[in-house]
Amino acid sequence: TTTCEPRCQWTEWFDEDYPKSEKAGGDVESYDKIRRAGGAVCEQPQGIECQAENFPNVRLEELNQHVHCDVSFGLVCRNDEQVGLFKMCYNYRIRVLCCGYSH
């Protein structure tokens, strides 16, 4: 018998949105937005990595921003959820882990 082994690889980094400064603004890196821009995002990503464009070596938890990074939809950062002096989202980018099966 042949077993199917998942073959997984990370996509390139995607940055399709840029944060706007108004209170209702933010940064949204959704799969739909990336696909509309021609990005190849699989239908069911198995993992996600999110990072601030200007701080690629800093973990999200250390940025002191309220950010939703979720494998089911991508990344959402809303200016009105930020606390502290700087009430604007950083510019974020994401990449996802796509898996296919081969024999």
From TrEMBL:
Residues 10-98 form the WxxW domain. One of its GO terms (cellular component) is extracellular region. It is found in: Secreted. InterPro entries: CILP1/CILP2 (IPR039675), WxxW_domain (IPR025155). Keywords: Glycoprotein, Secreted, Signal. Its main location: secreted. This is Mucin-5B-like. The lineage of its organism: Eukaryota, Metazoa, Chordata, Craniata, Vertebrata.
